[in-house]
Every structure is written in structure tokens, then in C-alpha cells.
Sequence to fold (114 residues):
Amino acid sequence: QVQLVESGGGLVQPGGSLRLSCVLSMSRFSDYGMAWYRQAPGKQREWVANILSSGVTNYAVSVKGRFTISRDNAKNTVYLQMNSLKPEDTARYYCNRLPAFNSWGQGTQVTVST
Fold:
């Protein structure tokens, strides 16, 4: 059974930075695109960014220019560097494969607040 383990979240002030990591226990990691999602309290999960197997990246308008997604195929790991964080970035962040597995990890909480 696949495991997705997100880490790196925390409490940060507006304008600060965090780097999230996600390790996926799966085979052929390098063959698949990977994505980050987030879910704020009372809201639906939303897509944040993805990175294809080719390395091409895509971002939601709300994070473009502030967040950077990357991957390390040797470590089965996908990262999300988040800069210039805003209170509206507060959410639980999740990663998954493209197409997504049915199961999800526990996510990592990001709170942007003074």
C-alpha cells in the first residue's frame, strides 16, 4: 500500500518562508507527475502546484511567483518552497501523484499568522 508522508509545516509570520517535503513510497516515482494540494478549514481541497515527470511545473494563480515545486527522484520526494507567505495560505497541505492515489497522507499544517 502506498504511503505519502508530508512534513515541514509550522507557524510562520506573514512574509516568511517554509519548505514542505513529501516522501512517497511507490515504484517508478520518476515516471509520474506530482502535485501539492491544500485544504483550509471549511473549504474544499484545492490544487496548488504540480511538476510533471519532464520537470515542467504549473502553479495556481494564487501562489504563482511565491511558491516553487521541485522533486528529487532519487529520494522519491517532492518539495514545495513557499516564500512571501500570506495569512490566506493557512491550510493543511497534501501531496499526491498524478493521477492521484485513492489514499492520502495526513498532510502538514501551515499557519501564517502574527
